[in-house]
Amino acid sequence: MGVEGVFSIDSGLGFVIIIAIILFSTKVLGLVCRRIGLPQVLGYIIAGIIIGPAIFGELCGFSLIGLNKPGSDASYKALFLLNGFGEDGFSMGTDGLAIFSKIGVLLLMFSTGLETNLSELKKTGLAATLVACMGVAVPMALGILISLPFGSLGLGTENIYNCVFIGAILTATSVAITVSVLKELGKISTKLGTTIVSAAIIDDVIGIIVLSIVTGIAKSGDAGDLTGFAWFKAQWWGTVIMIVAFFIVAIALGFGISYLFKWLDKKWPSTHRIPVFSLVVCFFYSWLAEEVFGVADITGAFLAGIVLSTVHHASEYTDKKVEVNTYTMFAPVFFANIGISNISFLGLNGMIFLFAFLAVLMGLIGKIVGCGAVAKCFKYNLRESSIAGVGMMARGEVALIVTSTALGAGLPEEFVIMTVLLILVSSVLTPVLLKALYGKQKPLPANGAPEPADSLEPPEQQ
To answer: What is the dihedral of CA 239, 293, 322, 171, to 10 degrees?
Structure first.
């Protein structure tokens, strides 16, 4: 039978109804979570799971939104079917949702960079770096150790590279969920909040370097078919050079961009051209990072925000305008898409499920213990150290990117379920635990004005 749809989403108008369903469901469930004392981000993800195929589609036979995945054994009927995954050309349904989600996470990271206080970042530089290092080392070590007994699944000492790939997947950090919760609580601009965000960015860079080195060694025999620049980037040392080169280029360009925006802000203060040109910088840095230098695109978006944060008035005005679009549309779509596109309960067997459970547990413990221990060494109290550890344990799109790279290097496909479960569990637990650790104190944004009690969005969005 396969997946059937009452309405097939393959046009722009069809995609609009998908966005409408996502925005309505995320807002309703977000407000429900807010009313019972939970972050709205949790409601966004739950909304995606409910309207997606994971529960009512694959388990009950009918879903509001369905996915036509190539090679899937799923069999159900959906009211709205998102067709294709780009294999037969662009799909307005599936590919359109992925594009909206990508814009959402880039805008979240760009906004975070805009709100970063560089002087405060300098104070937390060493702490953030060491937190990131332990946030990579401890989960990776635990991931490798937990993989060794599972030789029957293609791991064990005979497949040591696959074990290392599992460890590399566990190192990834997605700061987007943490950023949203910290913003909701009014803690994003604090010293601890800056440390967490900075450490998450550094964590991903280190994790990508580690993955590149392991992949380069595992696929060293394939590099002979490549020539020129492609061959250079295929080498692990070439990847390291490209990552260093990106930061050099980004910082060098940043000086010129900073001067340009200071001139724009002086000549045309508080005009729409400033946030428009700022988005150009954000998307250019994101593209430059991933497509040219092989660095995660969210790192490029964050660095773009950092560059523009040096122009104080312009960055505040830009952040105010960007947040309107981010929290009205793109961020809810991004979080809901985690539940819609990345969750599946088909194909699970006992051994895979056991391994996935243990790997997820090690991934969560590794971040909390590794990052929290370093924070404690830097004179943070026990609660603040726990917040640092929990803030670093969320996973998202970066974990999926690392998994895709590992699959291309030989990791068996069934381990995707581990990444999916890791994203789901960490996405649910991170906002809940952060909320509990911060307590019920009244959230205050950076400007000191009380934030509305029922909203994740900026005040002007009510």
So the answer is: -10
Q: Whose CA is closest to 367, among 183, 209, 196, 229?
A: 196
Biggest CA pair distance of the chain: 67
Question: What are all long-range contacts of 194-197, with beta carbons under 8 Å and residues at least 24 apart?
Answer: 194/116, 194/117, 194/120, 194/121, 194/124, 194/128, 195/124, 195/127, 195/128, 195/131, 195/375, 195/388, 196/131, 196/387, 196/388, 196/391, 196/392, 197/112, 197/116, 197/302
In tens, the pLDDT along 67-82 reads 776 656 667 787 888 7
Reported for 69-77, long-range contacts at CB under 8 A and 24+ positions apart, including other chains, are: 69/3, 72/3, 72/346, 73/346, 73/347, 74/2, 74/3, 74/344, 74/346, 75/1, 75/2, 75/3, 76/3, 76/4, 77/3, 77/4, 77/5, 77/6
Query: Which secondary-structure segment (H or E) carries 112?
Result: helix 94-114
Q: What pTM, to 2 d.p., does this model score?
A: 0.71
pLDDT tens figures, 126-156: 888 888 889 889 999 999 999 999 887 878 7
Torsion of CA 438, 442, 443, 447, to 10 degrees: -140
Q: Compute the distance between CA of residue 318 and CA of residue 287 in angstroms, rounded to an integer.
A: 20
- Name residue 66's beta-bridge partners: 81
Spatial distance between the Cα atoms of 372 and 13, rounded to a whole number of angstroms: 48
Residues in the chain: 462
Sign (positive/negative) of CA torsion 50, 51, 52, 57? positive
∠ CA 3-9-14, rounded to 5°: 150
Q: How far apart are CA 140 and CA 263, in angstroms?
A: 46
